[in-house]
Amino acid sequence: MKAAIYSRKSKFTGKGESIQNQIELCKEYANNYFNISEFIIYEDEGFSGGNTDRPEYQRMIADAKKKKFDVLICYRLDRISRNVLDFSKTIEMLQANNISFVSIREQFDTSTPMGRAMMYISSVFAQLERETIAERIKDNMQRLALTGRWLGGKKPFGFKSKQIEVINYEGEKRKLYELIPIPEEIEIVKLIYKKYIELCSFTKVESYLIQNNIKRNGKFFNQSTVSYILRNPVYCVADQLSYEYFSRQGSATPDKNEFDGKSGLIAYSKRCETTWTIRNKKDWIIGVGRHKGIISSKDWIQVQNIAEENQTKAIKNGTSRISLITPLLKCKCGETMKASSIQKNNDGSIKYYYYVCRRKERTNGSLCNIKNCNGHKADKEVVESLKKFAFNTENLQKLFFGEINSLNSRKENSEDKKKSLLNEIEKKKTMISKLVDSITGSDNSAATKYILEKINKIDNEIKELQKELQTLDNKIETDMLKKLNYEITLELFKKVADLDKLNFEEKQQLIHKLVDKIVWDGENLHLYIKNINSTNCIS
Ligand SMILES: [Zn+2]
């Protein structure tokens, strides 16, 4: 029996299983479970799993079609592909050639029908899993990190941006930005860093700025904008010290030599796309920007150390574990609300707290004077209303199954369209081969010229159709992910039934996965559920 081993490793990080390791593990598995006489090894290094455009992968596919081996072994499913469509195509081709497939990490053996079914399901979920999606985004971002461009979005304070258009490796136009410093704002950034090192508190820096009438775009700084500026590597000078700092944190970084002692840094993948919370630094991708660094790496790192120490203290004192619904809770003026006036019982448990609008608190009620909101009561109301929502199955059916059904029918349409596109391409290919045949028999050069022109025209038409097919494939994949997203939200709603059994963190996580935001209007709380357009007014 002959076994093929396929391994893949993507470009950037040195982390993850090395190719050699993947191969050793596969060999070990094969020797334990199969009677293997020969191994054929395929290894792609420096390629992403986002498509199948990989030389060794293509060689493996070609060999499989020639039945050069009996079983294909890989270390993990996503080594083959992180794209469900590519993945299922590969598996179907293997099956058609009577080749078994084994992924040792997931322990699927496609020689059994159950193994095949499990593998499909798991490949679909693997793609959906946030981590995998994040990895795909990461691949793209790493590619961009090397260019040192800022990707747009919320512009860091101290800079304006200049838009430039670049063509990416797929031939698509993409808008990217270059950061241009604004001298007056840069001075404020320097002051904020200086003051924080002196005062060691976001709130104290906020008060200092308000007292000295220092504003951004005519508005006062608040604690979160201050902390955002202090945590952003965009101001930090790229030098050996900052290189070492980020390597130690486990962030992906470019080569050491890129840290030139002059430029500023750019952090990609800093926030989670769904919860918008700051990720652990080990998931950041650091690039060296095209702008100048402003804060010395020594000062920048000192600020991070102070901030982290303060955070640890806050967790120890329990102040971060009071509220179930911050930072989802917003005042109707648009500001976030925070837990305040916390009173504790003798045993340390929380007796009482309010949610207060940050703008109201900051301006002593002059810019917003909304009523405070009872903390325990608000948390309880959100939980109860989620439960009510989850138990109203009729409501859920209406909201989610409607969407799922329309996605299903759209999928049928797309599949039909895909079939007819493939048909058309096939027809045109046949036309070309007939035309080619007719040239072979002809010695009339004028006719040949005419035929060649025609072939060229049909060939261009085929290219257009293939482009259309690619767009359609992308649409089918997006729809499938959307559908799964709905299905997973439904699953999460089922978990709401057990909400009371969960611990504080689990409750918090579940609520954050389901709820988009909660708005306090002074009388009532309005609950906005993710993936749904309508709102639920509670209390
Ligand atoms: Zn307010």
Report on this structure.
- By secondary structure, this protein is an alpha/beta fold.
- 51% of the residues lie in helices and 18% in strands.
- The chain is built from 16 helices and 18 strands.
- It has a 5-stranded mixed β-sheet with strand order 2-1-3-4-5, with helices on both faces. A 4-stranded mixed β-sheet has the order 12-16-17-18.
- Strand 16 (515-520) and strand 17 form a beta hairpin.
Quick description:
The chain has helices spanning 19-33, 55-65, 77-80, 84-96, 113-128, 130-145, 183-199, 202-211, 223-231, 240-249, 297-317, 358-362, 375-391, 393-440, 445-495, 504-514; strands at 2-9, 38-45, 71-74, 100-103, 108-109, 159-167, 173-181, 215-216, 219-220, 263-268, 285-292, 329-331, 337-344, 350-357, 373-374, 515-520, 525-529, 535-538. The chain has 539 residues and is of the alpha/beta class. The protein binds zinc ion.
**CATH architecture label name of the largest domain:** Orthogonal Bundle
Mean pLDDT: 81
Q: How far is the first residue's CA from the last residue's CA?
A: 68 Å
What is the count of distinct domains? 3
Main sheet makeup: 5 strands, mixed
Strand content: 15-25%
Task: Supply the CATH class of the largest domain.
Answer: Mainly Alpha
H/I helix tally: 16
- Enumerate the spans where pLDDT stays under 50 for 5 or more consecutive residues: 128-133
Share of residues in helices? 40-55%
The structural class is alpha/beta
Read across the widest sheet, the strand sequence of neighbours is 2-1-3-4-5
Shape estimate: globular
Q: How many strands in all? A: 18
- By CATH, the topology of the largest domain is Helix Hairpins
Radius of gyration: 29 Å
List each distinct ligand once.
zinc ion
GO molecular function: DNA binding; DNA strand exchange activity
Keywords: Coiled coil
Pfam family, one: Resolvase
InterPro entries: DNA_bind_recomb_sf, DNA_bind_recombinase_dom, Resolv_N, Resolvase-like_N_sf, SSR_resolvase, Zn_ribbon_recom_dom
